[in-house]
Design goal:
With 123 residues, this protein is of the alpha/beta class. The chain has a single domain, classed as 3-Layer(aba) Sandwich (Rossmann fold). It is 41% helix and 20% strand. It is built from 5 helices and 5 strands, in the order βαβαβαβαβα. It has a 5-stranded parallel β-sheet, with helices on both faces. β1, α1 and β2 form a beta-alpha-beta unit. It is globular.
Length: 123
């Protein structure tokens, strides 16, 4: 029996999680969520079916940049695709996220077509 792949959404705003989850579930992508990077790591430790992370970059306690570094430094998680999702859409923000180790970048509000293209590439 093959294990179903899941997407982990990490965002400190429950409205963002709700919106992304609704879109993903409507497109038949199973997903789970966490309201902090710490909770996201707890899920990653327990659930090996996570195959992609949509990560908010601006969160309290641990921001997305630190979370990416910890994921990419972990030998069991380092190949997990991490997509930076941020409201920061200024010049240079995409490059900053990619330089931090993100595999790709989506700006908020997330464009559905762009999200689906990214998922097709990494999921």
């Amino acid at each position: 029996m093959t294990q179903e792949k899941k997407i982990l959404i990490i965002d400190d705003d429950s409205k963002n999680i709700y919106a992304l989850s609704a879109v993903l579930k409507a497109k038949k992508f199973p997903c789970v969520s966490a309201l902090s990077a710490k909770k996201g790591f707890e899920i990653l430790e327990k659930d090996p079916s996570i195959s992609l992370v949509l990560l908010d970059m601006m969160m309290p306690e641990m921001d997305g940049y630190e979370a990416i570094r910890l994921i990419k430094d972990n030998p069991t998680l380092q190949n997990l695709p991490v997509i930076a999702v941020t409201a920061q859409a200024m010049a240079g923000d995409k490059e900053k996220c990619l330089a931090a180790g993100a595999d790709d970048y989506l700006s908020k509000p997330v464009d559905l077509l762009q999200l689906l293209n990214v998922l097709q590439q990494y999921y």
